Task: structure prediction
Amino acid sequence: MKKFFYLMSLCLCMFAGVAVMTSCGDDDDELNPGEISYKTGITEKGNTLQLTITAGSVYTERYTATFGSDDKCIKFIEEMIYSKKDYADLEWQAIQAEYQQMPDELKKYSKDGKTITIDETETWKGRSRSEVREYFEMIQEEFERHSNYDK
Result:
């Protein structure tokens, strides 16, 4: 259940971020959600497994899991990379408001310019590569089901 709640909260953050970006004003024509093409992909290189979700040139979300020699997760990082600092600033404000009553959760988040990083190592440490891949595939399927998706 915790895994499901976590997945849904990530998807909510992702879609909330896109929703926030589309309501910034009339000067950003490229942010019409009907015109943005979305792509997802899972790649595996050595001890790293990565899921990347791209919303046109506006937004990229990257999940990166690193595994030890026993094929257990030793690091899990999520990055939300925005095309404009203003978009990242809006999302950062939303995250701070959402987690202001949960300081331990907020400690997982950091912001640097256009990138918001979430360190989920504590949640995923010790999990197998196949568990992480299954989670990535579940996110990918959910995203493809609820978006304007380009394969």
Q: What stands out?
A: The mean pLDDT is 81.
